[in-house]
Write a structure and sequence with these properties.
By secondary structure, the chain is of the alpha/beta class. The chain has one domain: Rossmann fold (3-Layer(aba) Sandwich). About 45% of the residues lie in helices and about 10% in strands. The protein has ten helices and five strands, in the order ααβααβααβααβαβα. The chain has a five-stranded parallel beta sheet, with helices on both faces. Helix 1 packs across helix 7 and helix 8 packs parallel to helix 9. The radius of gyration is 18 Å and the shape is globular.
Length: about 270
């Protein structure tokens, strides 16, 4: 980034964002309380017959999965997704289990997936939703803030890709049948600092790589959300940290995830 003013501004934003990503917050997802565990035989028989069974959705990843920025503390995008799913006639009974962690990077998600509770959650899931990558980008900016260049993000994308592939492989180790949805990144600064176009370029390249990864796996889908968080749209960013979505942002994000599930998972049930 050649413009020194932009670089300094980006540094201030990154420092603020990283601090915001680490604060503790309790988020309650009501859907986890209504879980009814299916038997082993049922799991084998109803993978793609949701109309006759309980549907388990596993939501894993970073602070977007945790719902940071949702001032109602209801779980970010999860309640909106649940509402959309339960409105579908093919979805008889839905439980969304949240296993998000604030500040989590793609490397951290690989480690989390080696923990028994997470593996058990994944093994029972019919659908797995992943939010990851934002902290990878921010960690690169923090590490190289004094001499920040776009090249550092281009180099870092390979490590991110390696980790995402490990994540998908680990999920498939414990669940060969679930549909997996990888949610893309968005530029949180587009609404507030339209002149920082370098971040748009970074997000585009990382999202393109994420989409390419999903194409290498069966029943793995990329959910694009970057276009939802543009300066033309209403304010969708939480003003407490200028980084995470606010309640409206999470609603739109949840709707986008649902539309992808309807297009890919639900449409198969209706064929």
């Amino acid at each position: 980034m050649n413009n020194l003013l932009k670089r300094l501004l980006l540094l201030l934003l990154v420092s603020f964002v990283l601090g915001a990503c680490s604060f503790e917050r309790s988020v309650s997802v009501q859907t986890t309380e209504k879980e009814v565990a299916p038997s082993a035989n049922e799991e084998e028989e109803i993978i793609f017959d949701f109309s006759e069974a309980h549907v388990n959705v596993a939501s894993i990843g970073d602070s977007l999965t945790k719902g940071v920025g949702d001032t109602t503390d209801n779980g970010g995008y999860l309640p909106f997704l649940l509402q959309d799913l339960e409105a579908e006639s093919t979805m008889k009974d839905v439980t969304i289990n949240d296993y998000g962690k604030k500040g989590l990077s793609s490397a951290g998600l690989v480690k989390n997936l080696q923990k028994e509770p997470v593996q058990e959650l994944i093994s029972k899931a019919d659908i797995v939703i992943i939010t990851i990558g934002g902290n990878d980008v921010m960690n690169i900016a923090k590490k190289n803030y004094s001499h920040l260049k776009i090249d550092y993000f281009k180099e870092g994308i390979q490590s991110y890709e390696d980790n995402v592939r490990k994540v998908l492989d680990l999920i498939r180790t414990h669940n060969e049948e679930a549909d997996i949805y990888l949610v893309g990144l968005y530029n949180p600064f587009s609404q507030w600092f339209q002149d920082i176009k370098e971040f748009d370029e970074i997000m585009v390249s990382w999202n393109e790589r994420s989409k390419e990864i999903t194409l290498d796996y069966k029943d793995v889908y990329f959910v694009e959300i970057a276009s939802l968080f543009t300066e033309e749209n209403e304010n969708l960013i939480y003003e407490g940290d200028f980084f995470h979505p606010n309640l409206k942002g999470y609603e739109i994000m949840g709707n986008a995830i649902f539309e992808s599930i309807r297009e890919n998972t639900i449409s198969q049930l209706q064929e």
